[in-house]
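Thought: the user wants the 3D structure for the chain below. I'll pass the sequence to the structure tool as-is, report back what it returns, then summarize two notable features.
Action: structure_tool
Action Input:
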Amino acid sequence: MTGPRRFAVRVYYEDTDSGGVVYYANYLRFLERARTELLRSLGVEQAQLARDAGIAFAVRSLQVEYVKPARLDDLIEVATTIGELGRAQVVFLQRIEREGELLVDATVRVACLDLAKGRAAAMPKNIHEKLKELT
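Observation:
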């Protein structure tokens, strides 16, 4: 198993509520960006995948534990690993940290979808193999 993939995020004013604390839903955006960058680091461009193969990834379920708040101007890091890998879905284990301190702990189940049929489909073999290397 390889270590987690890490993605740095600066907290901007637009990410926060009136108290300067990150609004809870914006953590989901940070998690999404980190998963997208993980795929990109493996050579998977989601727009191209949708266009050329008619395949997309969509969140099926998620569990989020908000532990501590991030604040305006914080530099936070999203650590992403693979928890489970099936042919049509992958479970990402994600943590948002500030200087090693846990802020958010999330488990995100993502399904691979056939866009034309609107239902689950096996992910392309090359993508599955690349994700398997991360487990």
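Final Answer: Structure generated. The chain has one domain: 5-132. The longest strand covers residues 101-114.
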